[in-house]
């Protein structure tokens, strides 16, 4: 199974997700999304795999830039533009397969995504 993780090594939840992937014997493609910001198309794809149309499902609304950009009342398109331009707004970690994705908060959700029997 191909697995990708949008990873921030400074984040304990992201490191926890990496530990779970290792326990499951999964070698993910690691994308340091703060260095390699996802494209608008990638954001749309992940939203679909998360099973939602709402960008806030993968957005860190407590980040200062969220307030600075006045995103509280923003629409979907403006939120996606903000995520693409300011990857610090992307919640972490996000683990992605070919058909599904999960925001790994808590990291145990990664196990449920990849090992539904657990």
**In percent terms, what proportion of residues is strand?**
5-15%
Uncertain runs: none
Tally the helices: what do you get? 5
Which descriptor suits the 3D outline? Answer: globular
Reported for the largest beta sheet, the result is:
4 strands, mixed
Series of H and E elements: EHEHHHEEH
Structure description:
- With 118 residues, this protein is an alpha+beta fold.
- It has a single domain (4-114), classed as 3-Layer(aba) Sandwich (Glutaredoxin).
- The protein contains 5 helices and 4 strands, in the order E-H-E-H-H-H-E-E-H.
- It has helices at 12-23, 40-50, 64-68, 76-85, 108-114, and strands at 4-6, 29-31, 94-96, 101-103.
- The chain has a 4-stranded mixed beta sheet, sandwiched between helices.
- The mean pLDDT is 95.
List the helices and strands and how they pair.
Layout: E1 4-6, H1 12-23, E2 29-31, H2 40-50, H3 64-68, H4 76-85, E3 94-96, E4 101-103, H5 108-114
Parallel strand pairs: 1-2
Antiparallel strand pairs: 1-3, 3-4
């Amino acid at each position: 199974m191909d697995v990708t993780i949008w990873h921030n090594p400074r984040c304990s939840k992201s490191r926890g997700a990496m530990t779970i992937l290792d326990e499951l014997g999964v070698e993910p493609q690691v994308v340091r999304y703060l260095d390699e910001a996802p494209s608008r198309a990638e954001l749309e794809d992940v939203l679909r795999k998360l099973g939602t149309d709402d960008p806030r499902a993968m957005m860190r609304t407590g980040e200062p830039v969220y307030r600075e950009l006045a995103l509280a009342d923003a629409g979907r398109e403006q939120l996606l533009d903000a995520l693409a331009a300011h990857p610090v707004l992307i919640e972490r970690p996000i683990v992605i397969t070919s058909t599904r994705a999960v925001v790994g908060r808590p990291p145990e959700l990664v196990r449920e995504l990849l090992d539904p029997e657990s």
